[in-house]
Design brief:
Blueprint: E1 2-8, E2 15-19, E3 28-29, E4 31-32, E5 40-46, E6 49-57, E7 60-62, E8 69-72, E9 75-82, H1 109-116, H2 132-147, E10 164-165, H3 170-180, E11 184-189, E12 194-200, H4 201-213, H5 219-225, H6 228-235, H7 252-261, E13 266-271, E14 280-286, H8 287-298, E15 319-320, E16 328-329, E17 333-334, H9 339-348, E18 353-357, E19 363-368, H10 380-383, H11 391-395, E20 405-409, H12 415-422, E21 427-433, E22 440-445, H13 446-453
Parallel strand pairs: 10-11, 15-16, 17-18, 20-21
Antiparallel strand pairs: 1-5, 2-3, 2-6, 4-5, 6-7, 6-9, 8-9, 11-12, 13-14, 15-22, 18-19, 21-22
Amino acid sequence: MVHTQFVWPHGGNQVFLCGDFTGWVKYQQMVPVEGSAMTFVTICDLPPGYHKFKFLVDGVWRVDHQQFFKEDEDGMNNIILVKPPEIMIQPLVVDDCGLPIMDIDGLDDHHHADNASTSSNIPHETFLPLRAEDIETTRNRLSQHLSSYQVDELIPDSGKVFALDANLSVEDAFLVMHAEGLAVAPLWDEANHQISGMLTASDFIMILMELQRNHAIVANRVLEVSSVSAWKEGKLQLQRRPLIKVDPDETLNAVAYKILHNHISSVPVIYVAQGATFPQLLHVACLSGLLKHINRHFEYRIGYLPLLQQPIGSLPIGSWIRDIGGARELLTLLSHELLSDALRLLLDEHISSVPIVDSKGTLVNIFSRSDITSLAKGNVYARIQLDHATVAQALQLVDMKAHSRFETCTRSDTLQRVITLLSDPGVRRVVVVEGGTQRVLGLITLRDVFSLIFIDSR
């Protein structure tokens, strides 16, 4: 039998535990944790294997959605895997005469200490096997749901949407983006009365690197007088393509497809009334808005989307450090590395952000493409040398209190938990860390989530 702790962290007056190990007829009372008004615990002796259980909270049967749960012929239940206790076999150590030496105070303390400090040690976690039908069911049901809602579902009842004049100077454009916390902004072409494109933080990165390559000593003057359209059409010789947009009567499925298929972060929602001369910019749709919609509709019935119940450590999603493995290896940087190297990494690897870690791999911060707009404040870009400044110096300019920027989770957190975190418009990525040490293990972005759960059914 194995001592197994059960926790109910959601409050109540009286909480009981019941499961297949009690025959579903006996209730074991849980006791509140000292110093917490919300958490109740109890310990049971259970045989190794999978066990189903529920909580009876103030007379109401409850399932903890933060723990693994599943719906089957017995209804909706939490599930726990009880592992057999590990038997530690102490090696037999003998003296020069072949006689055994007894371990009194710990035979090999130094050896164990070395192992504990080794950065490559990852705690082993066992997850329930992922079923292919769970992936297919989730994708099909979600696609059907998104196909039944139109884009106007994403448009807030009140708020503001920005469009920048394409003739605005590069400096002023990125000052506005920084001040408003925008990662992307539509460009308005006054001459042709239309939205002509999208300005992104990646544009600013490429502009700065272009100036760096040309050793422009008049960078400040260049960005003061150069318009956004001039840079996008001439200086950087960017390949132009038709504006990717959506109409308010298109489906949410179409929004997701256009963003993922075209490798962009957002699309403008544009409405042209019959007989009207000018188009109306209604909204800028993005993946976080779609996730917020999904979370709102399925937060309390995620059994309908079985993939959302799975711990992220069991899913083919995101980037992971080499010790864990995965389809993509996670790239990290140290705080003292050069800003120019960080910017090249973001562009060359086609990634939106990179975790900043210390020498032990512990999370320090995140550096993202949108952070570079902070250099527009106070004309810092005109004085900074990308190949001399460090990532830490660049991050000092970022207002960490302006928005959440990123969140953290563990490998045992469910996909539903990650979706909830990413539903915040300011949060574009979730860093997976090791509990307790905060060592970085992986990174999950908005695009990673949709690449897993979305299937185009148009």
